[in-house]
Structures are given as C-alpha cells and as structure tokens.
Specification:
It comes from Alcanivorax nanhaiticus. With about 200 residues, the protein is of the alpha/beta class. A five-stranded parallel beta sheet has the order 2-1-3-6-7, sandwiched between helices. The chain has a two-stranded antiparallel sheet with strand order 4-5. The two termini are about 20 Å apart. Helix 1 packs parallel to helix 6 and helix 2 packs across helix 3. The protein contains six helices and seven strands; from the N terminus they run βαβααβαβββαβα.
Length: about 200
C-alpha cells in the first residue's frame, strides 16, 4: 500500500486541513501498518509556479533541453510518478478567497501534462493515470459546500477526472471562522467521518 499525502495549507501542519489529513493518515496507517507514506507539504516546500521558462522546458524536445530545462522536467515527472505509484491519495485543501491555494495549483500544473497524464482524442480528453481512491479533506472558514460559491469541489473533481481518477471523496469541515464552538463541532464531525 502506497499512500500519497498532499498538504496545501500555508500553515503546513498548523492548518485545519492538515489536521484532518493527519487524522486520515493515522486511520490508514492503523488499517495498513506496512503502508509506505509519501508526503508533500506544499506550504513547507512550495512547488515553483509555472512561468515561461518552466513551460518552455516541458515543450522542448529532450535532445534539445539545457541541463536546467531537464531538471524542471525531471521534477515534474517525479511528482507524476508519485501520483501513479500511489494506491491511495489524501489531499488537504483549504479554501482561500473562493479557490484552492496557489501551492496546490502549482502541483496540479506540474502533474497535468498532455501526452503524459492525459491526451486529447477525437472523443475528447482521456486520462492516462489509473483510477484510485482520493480523499479530499476540505477546510473552509464559511459555509460553501453545495452552493454556487464552492468553486473548489468541482475544480478538484475536474482535475482528477481529467487525468483518469474518478474515485474522489470529500470530507468537509466548514464554518471554521464562525466561532470556537462552530469550529470545534465541524472539526469533530469531519474527524468522525474520517474514522468511519
């Protein structure tokens, strides 16, 4: 059992989404003591945002790449291999200003690559990564799930399905900035859902 863990809170382990991730990982380790855990803390170790040079490296033929361009491609491919090798994926996703953290967007930008993790066909895009369970632990300051203001849930589902992964489950902890009592109740309920 290989488990890929992605934390995207700017507060690293201090974030609410990371606390939920840690609870999920502990539950998985209890069920699979021999599991291998690969963790990417994107707050502690941010992935560079895409720029012209990084995109240029992706599109430069291998035989024409500079050493620096090859390093960029190697880094992207390492992230892709981690996702491919995982039997399960756990992702912590806070909502910042109605969207995902830019750190997580950078990870997505290095993983979603035409011809590698998806391809375009006459029948539309086709994902190239085998389906696997993904648990998304979503932390929000307000109440967004099921409303038109929740841009995060459809975006995360779209990204994973685009690369071939459709078994995506969400656990929400909402209202975390609406008072201590509301926060405690939301976190307790989310952790109970994780335990099940």
């Amino acid at each position: 059992m290989n488990i890929l863990v992605i934390k995207s809170s700017v507060f690293s382990d201090g974030g609410n989404s990371s606390a939920l991730v840690n609870a999920k990982v502990e539950a998985l380790k209890a069920a699979h003591p021999q599991a291998t855990i690969v963790e990417r803390d994107l707050g502690a170790n941010p992935i560079p945002h895409l720029d012209g040079e990084r995109v240029g490296a992706f599109f430069t033929p291998v035989e024409k790449r500079t050493a620096e361009q090859q390093q960029v491609d190697d880094f992207s491919m390492a992230l892709i291999e981690e996702l491919k090798a995982a039997d399960q994926v756990v992702v912590g996703v806070p909502m910042y200003n109605f969207g995902i953290p830019s750190q997580l967007k950078s990870w997505i930008d290095h993983v979603a690559r035409a011809g590698i993790t998806f391809r375009y066909t006459e029948n539309g895009p086709q994902g190239l990564i085998a389906d696997k369970p993904v648990t998304v632990l979503a932390a929000r300051g307000g109440l967004y799930a099921g409303t038109e203001n929740d841009t995060v849930t459809p975006y995360i589902k779209l990204f994973f399905s685009f690369v071939g992964i459709t078994s995506v489950e969400f656990v929400f902890a909402e209202g975390l900035n609406m008072g201590d009592e509301t926060k405690a109740k939301a976190m307790d309920e989310a952790k109970a859902a994780i335990a099940q």
